[in-house]
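Section 3.1: Structural characterization of target chains.
Under the original work plan, the team committed to producing a structural model for every single-chain target entering the pipeline before any wet-lab resources were allocated. The record below documents one such target. The sequence was received from the expression subgroup and is listed exactly as submitted; it comprises 173 residues.
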Amino acid sequence: MYYGAVRKTDVANGPGVRVSLFVSGCTHHCKGCFQPETWDFSYGRVYTRETEKEIMDSLNHDYIKGLTLLGGEPFEPSNQKVLVGLLRLVKNVLPEKDVWCYTGYTYETDLLKDSRARCGVTDEILSMIDVLVDGEFLEEEKDISLSFRGSHNQRLIDLPKTRRQKKIILVQI
């Protein structure tokens, strides 16, 4: 997997100060995407054990609330196969940190049912995410006043509550 950037003090992609990993590779190609360079699966640098260590070291501060995964598209199957290892590590070593993930896929139709996004680790990844921001960015629904999303169709889903209540529970911000 390649990645475009690791932001060690990000305040734009989830609440509090966060560490954000911008993965490379996306097949959605949303019109008006704010990072079209990340569509290329070979954009940026190769994700390595050193990258993982950098992320873990950056997360290991009291002022860091959590990790955010975005891109590109974290739920491209080739990215999931790498990200599952990072999420296992975060949940085992720093369980107090929350995990946010941005995806152009839709939770119920693309991530829970058979689709090109689903692979052998999709369910495990979903089990380690606290908030899923789902849905493609739609330029015609763009609104810069929205918190932590770019267009009105995108949802901030509280995944632990959604799993417990067996229905979509949105984060209230």
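The chain is about 25% helix and 25% strand.
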